[in-house]
């Protein structure tokens, strides 16, 4: 979006505004407990809902901060959480940054060795943990000797935890009623830390600042993104250990939207009941969750009419999901694009208001229109910016006030950042309205004869074959073309679909030169800890000679 | 809203986000011409509408910046505008700050001596002026010799202008197609300048920064304020020389809302026709404008159904206006509070969603609920913060990222700023939801026996008398009580309402000790240049012995 820019520095005259007024999570906390003091957070435990007003949450946050201070937590220290979405997690979200410490949300779904690496890398002095999750974390961190205090939410067993073990409610009861918050004069101060579960190398930490968190929360309240406001009731199905639950805990407390916390009950039936019972207006989560809910809704027809928008992200949103909810249930599922490094709001796929319904449906299938305050571009292999013509495809780079500038103490990730831009690793085209259409991940794209072949497009086409369960396409080194596509396909048990049949199926559906040179039938595509196709593992098998295929095309 | 805050500095650890990514008007310009390139600005000239897309506006902005550079405009220089709301004014809004210069919007309604003072104080090197307005400005600035270039929009006569005189369209036609914008690396750089027409002392300049302007624009897009978005068509009736037309030109170009510019045609009939014809969704202006439109709408029933919100501010909004539009036309007129020093968004009076209609009507009559990112408090005479109980009344102070920190080169205004807060001069109570109810201006409040009497409340009560046309209540020095109220009243010609009748009317309507000691019948309340009651003039008359009244109360 940038136009010509001369390298000169303009503006000897500074404005006379309160430009140094810090944008802090403490401001959100103060607004939550005063202006929005009547709004509520309701936490589901599988049986019923526990409710508290934001005013009550504020009082408990005071006590939490006092308790953590007593345990020795200092400004800048990392305090980790290991919890599902619940009121206590919200208290940690508001309190830990407000006391000048860093909220570190540990991902429950990581492998033990990843958790171990992360706790050690972050040097978490304190972990607030849900009792039922103790068995998941204890083995991973017991031997580290880094965590000095575990604060257990709930009355369950605490076996396996080392260091000092406290009960959350007991600590709060013993803490003073009020807390003298430190002044956070510099809003670039670290507020929260979240590690990405990358498919290469060690997890990388993104260290959010107060300023970036507040601006991101405000961004979500804009009518063109999610328009979170005081009339909303927000159900963050996305876990609070995934990119700050997309910022919804902050935008909700900033505006006085009620929060409904689903705990670990992420199945279609309990979610539908929460939506109906609490008259939820905004429910946000990944496609898998909403695909389940769609099947459930088709069968049981729960009352979902309170929903005004259903943000969906974390992976490409299938057409059946968007159109199924819209056509059969009148619901507005909206694709959003982002990543841990982008806080995560990067783009939102509302359709333009001036196109017909058929065109609108295509816009909704894109990753989204670049969000206000975010700047985006696509670049070619030489790093040169490419046109926004909806055709040219290049790596997506973003910058803006809530985009990461570097990983936390890990120079091995420095190559993701250059000249103020973040390389997202996504390959996409952008149209003249700023809608991003992702065609691939940059590390998965196949460079053939100087052109790019989209592995994602090939996979989508292959998965359209009735007998194909999974398809992952990777690059195979090629002397003449540099790389050529190799398709790893899982077929339905009992099916006799072979390489030749697949090649015949693809013929005419993609450009001739895109057709894979080889097909390998495999029993299962390997997956990462968060369930994505692990193409790194497939490439390793190819290198070791494990993957042997058949040519589908004899030409 | 602030709670305990210890004076220690927290956070040795800084986040790793792009906290130095500058928030600039150049970003808004770039987004307007790309992502929002199809949106349009339509300018009314009394006959028809001239339309341009934001893409076309962007191209013209490039030329404008090139032309101004050729005329010698440097970063930091002030470039003034003297125009109604129209496309060229929008081009100045986007271009002048983007080239690193300072957009100075001159108020057409000021007295010549005020204009002269302001142009000299701001040292405006260039003025962009509408041809029809030349006679208004020329006499005021001809002798100053400060303005080097006048750029005249339109083909009308230019008599009386000194310095070099250019035609806007000729300059643009001669300018290069592209412009190399300077990098504005520090977003605290000055972007715009607007003088307040205070009732005391010289006008004071508020110098907006890029950062404050962008954050304010984003604030207006939040669903809880005005929710400006890409589906909107915005009619700024508020002039672009009043506090940046409340920021609407920037929030509209940021989001791709269409703009409809009414020029000087601010009467009810043309406004109604613009609203109907352009399907305007947001129309913003002062109460006087909307009172006229209400009368017109009652009589002619124009189709105003496209309006989703009608922001109204600049003065207290009368109940008849709010309720008349709501009940008879189904329109959502929303009171907003702010001032030049607050960019101006300070509070918006949407009713809470959880109260009944009778209570909602009362909430809508307040100045509004403090806006997100703005921090507000009320303080007593000693500067001590007071409770938010809806009862206690004190001077309103605000702070936040779009609040002024000082006036431009005028230390005589320094007493308005202290410890990071702006003294607004408004006296109000605040309730526990952050709704502000203004009871007076601090300089007009009457201090009687250690308590405050609201001159505004007394005036409102007096103006409820069927024979009273205008009422202004001022403080009269009193030996025993410090001050006592004196009411200056204009009665309907031919009416025999006298002091005694007025005293009898007020009795029982206000507290006994609030009742004015004296009533003076005057032919007219003196007004300031912007039409507000000039109580300074009344107080001067009182001091000189010119005001002589009759006691209404013989007790």
From TrEMBL, chains A, B:
Entries under NCBIfam families matching the protein: PRK06187.1
Cross-referenced Pfam families: AMP-binding, AMP-binding_C
Recorded family membership: Belongs to the ATP-dependent AMP-binding enzyme family.
Ranges of residues in domain AMP-dependent synthetase/ligase: 41-408
Domain AMP-binding enzyme C-terminal: 458-532
GO MF entries: ligase activity, forming carbon-sulfur bonds
InterPro entries, per database record: AMP-bd_C, AMP-bd_C_sf, AMP-binding_CS, AMP-dep_synth/lig_dom, ANL_N_sf, ATP-dep_AMP-bd_enzyme
UniProt KW keywords: Ligase
Gene3D superfamilies registered for this protein in UniProt: 3.30.300.30, N-terminal domain of ligase-like
Name assigned to this protein: Unannotated protein
Coiled-coil intervals: none
Family annotation (PROSITE patterns): AMP_BINDING
């Amino acid at each position: 979006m940038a136009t010509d820019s001369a390298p000169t520095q303009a503006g000897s005259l500074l404005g006379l505004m309160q430009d140094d007024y810090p944008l802090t999570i403490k401001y959100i906390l103060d607004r939550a407990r005063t202006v929005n003091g009547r709004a509520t957070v309701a936490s589901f435990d599988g049986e019923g809902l526990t409710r508290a007003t934001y005013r009550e949450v504020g009082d408990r946050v005071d006590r939490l901060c006092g308790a953590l201070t007593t345990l020795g937590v200092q400004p800048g220290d990392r305090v980790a959480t290991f919890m599902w979405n619940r009121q206590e997690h919200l208290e940690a979200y508001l309190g830990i940054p407000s006391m000048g410490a860093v909220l570190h949300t540990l991902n429950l779904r990581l492998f033990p060795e990843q958790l171990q690496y992360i706790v050690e890398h972050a040097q978490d002095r304190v972990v607030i943990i849900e009792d039922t999750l103790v068995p998941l974390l204890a083995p991973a961190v017991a031997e580290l000797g880094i965590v000095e205090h575990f604060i257990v939410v709930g009355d369950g067993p605490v076996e396996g935890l080392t260091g000092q073990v406290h009960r959350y409610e007991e600590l709060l009861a013993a803490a003073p009623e009020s807390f003298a918050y430190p002044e956070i004069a510099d809003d670039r101060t670290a507020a929260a830390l979240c590690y990405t579960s990358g498919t290469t190398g060690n997890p990388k930490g993104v260290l959010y600042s107060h300023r970036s968190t507040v601006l991101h929360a405000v961004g979500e309240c804009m009518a063109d993104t999610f328009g979170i406001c005081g009339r909303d009731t927000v159900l963050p199905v996305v876990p609070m250990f995934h990119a700050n639950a997309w910022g919804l805990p902050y935008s909700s407390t900033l505006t006085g939207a009620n929060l409904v916390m689903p705990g670990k009950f992420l199945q279609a039936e309990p979610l539908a009941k929460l939506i109906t019972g609490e008259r939820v207006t905004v429910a946000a989560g990944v496609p898998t969750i909403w695909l389940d809910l769609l099947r459930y809704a088709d069968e049981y027809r729960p009352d979902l009419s309170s929903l005004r928008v259903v943000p969906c992200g974390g992976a490409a949103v299938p057409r059946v999901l968007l159109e199924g909810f819209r056509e059969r249930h009148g619901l507005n599922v909206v694709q959003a694009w982002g990543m841990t490094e982008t806080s995560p709001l990067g783009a939102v796929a509302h359709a333009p208001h001036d196109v017909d319904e058929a065109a609108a449906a295509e816009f909704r299938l894109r990753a989204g229109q670049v969000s206000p305050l975010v700047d985006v571009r696509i670049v070619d292999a030489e790093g040169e910016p490419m046109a926004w013509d909806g055709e040219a495809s290049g790596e997506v780079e973003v910058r803006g006030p809530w985009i990461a500038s570097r990983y936390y103490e890990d120079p091995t990730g420095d190559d993701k950042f250059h000249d103020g831009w973040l390389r997202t690793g996504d390959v996409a085209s952008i149209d003249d309205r700023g809608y991003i259409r992702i065609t691939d991940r940059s590390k998965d794209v196949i460079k053939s004869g100087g052109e790019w072949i989209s592995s994602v497009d090939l996979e989508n086409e292959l998965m359209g074959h009735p007998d194909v369960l999974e398809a992952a396409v990777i690059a195979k080194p090629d002397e003449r073309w540099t790389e050529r596509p190799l398709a790893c396909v899982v077929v339905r048990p009992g099916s006799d679909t072979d390489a030749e049949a697949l090649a015949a199926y693809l013929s005419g559906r993609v450009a001739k030169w895109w057709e894979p040179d080889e097909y390998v039938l495999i029993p299962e595509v390997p997956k990462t800890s968060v369930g994505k196709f692990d193409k790194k593992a497939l490439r390793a098998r190819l290198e070791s000679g494990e993957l042997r295929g058949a040519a589908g095309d004899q030409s």
